[in-house]
Design a protein that fits this description.
By secondary structure, the protein is α+β, with helices and mostly antiparallel strands. It has five helices and eight strands; from the N terminus they run βααββββαββααβ. The protein starts with 27 loop residues before the first strand and ends with a strand.
Length: 201
Amino acid sequence: MPRCSISGRPPGCTARSSVCPPRAATRSCRSWTSGQSSSSGSTRPGGAGPGPRRDGPVSEGLAGAPWALALLRDARVGRLATADAAGRPLVVPVCYAFDGSGCYSAVDAKPKQTRNLRRLKNIADNPQVSLVVDVWDEDWSRLCWVIVEGRAEVLGAGAEFARAIDLLVEKYPQYRALPLDRSGGAVITIRPRRMLAWRAA
């Protein structure tokens, strides 16, 4: 029976068709910072040095790591990390869409105890956030992850809000049966300042 990742791998992808296919036994890490291009050459997981300055969107900055862009674009779930004004962290799984320049996640109609969510309060107090997507496999040579660090804003109307809703509906068929609120909903937008991308091999 095909084995699928429980974290970040698109439906239908098996351990043999991951966006992080096995390569030579080397570790690689790339980073992109707003105003910088990607860099490579780190040999320790999670380590990355800044590259030369270069203005451009995330998709341009990580052009040398197409697997990272594919993972960020196609992953079905991400983990959003926020913190309140006192620095108390919160990590929640989210659906999101990536358009090459930013990430969007809606507060949808899935059952919740309240619509006044901690993640929204945290962003109001401290807009610095991180989003991580990853692929897990029992074969550790197939592990990979992408981390987006940036500034979050909560949108409730306007052209960008409407476009974000359209992107999410296009990516997730479930939103056609569980419609997003286009008149009074909330969309979290993440404007990347830095990105890290790592794979084991």
